[in-house]
Amino acid sequence: MAFIRKLVALFYSVLFFAIGVVLVIAASALVPAEDWAGMISNISRSAAYQIALMSFGGIMMITAVILPFRVSKNTRLRRQITFQNPDGEVTISIAAIEEYIYRAAKEISGISNVRSRVSFGRKGINIVSEVTINAGSNIPKLTEEIQSEIKNKVKTMLGVEEQITMVMRVNKITGRLPFSAGEAEEGAGSPHEVPFR
């Protein structure tokens, strides 16, 4: 199917390039108008040219009608995960999985916000999460906990054995830094001291 899509894309690229060349030549008057009229009259006199052009035009019209439906169908298929169970086919919306990940991550302390994008391919399920973490959290420990928790919950929810790859991006750290009493007293005594030079 990917080969056919590439072939159709190549076909339309060549076609539009050729139409562009013809328009540039016509607009720049490199070929006189009488020659254009002569070419068109030759086409109208020859049955072989007429059949070839009608076939080409018909194929283009059919492709122009079918292509948008195929593209929209492929787009819809990519936005859901389908698998078989003993009672039939089950389809789960990617948006539902992303919402589930949001709610599961919000249950973990130290997370103030999460936004995930889920995609499904031949190699399994890919999750890219952008998180906002509360200040004072141990980021390596927290992100490891989130990744492990989300992977397990998604795998359990979907009941799939496919590999789940998860990428975490910490976009923001919110809240105030927690200070211990000793750190606050040390900082108060020398406000202009620079720790590194």
Task: Provide tags for this entry.
single chain, 197 residues, alpha+beta, Alpha-Beta Plaits, 2 domains, 3-stranded mixed beta sheet, two-stranded antiparallel sheet, 5 strands, 23% strand, elongated
Please summarize what this structure is.
The chain has 197 residues and is of the alpha+beta class. The chain has 2 domains: 2-72, no CATH class; 88-174, Alpha-Beta Plaits. Helices cover 58% and strands 23% of the residues.
List the helices and strands and how they pair.
Blueprint: H1 2-28, H2 33-45, H3 47-78, E1 80-85, E2 88-93, H4 94-106, E3 111-121, E4 124-134, H5 139-158, E5 164-174, H6 181-189
Parallel strand pairs: 4-5
Antiparallel strand pairs: 1-2, 3-4
Walkthrough of the structure:
With 197 residues, the chain is an alpha+beta fold. It has two domains: 2-72, no CATH class; 88-174, 2-Layer Sandwich (Alpha-Beta Plaits). It is built from six helices and five strands. The strands form two sheets. Strands 3-4-5 form a three-stranded mixed beta sheet, covered by helices on one side. Helix 2 (33-45) crosses helix 3 (47-78) and helix 4 packs across helix 5. The chain is elongated and about 85 Å long. The N and C termini lie far apart (61 Å). Residues 183-190 have low confidence and may be disordered.
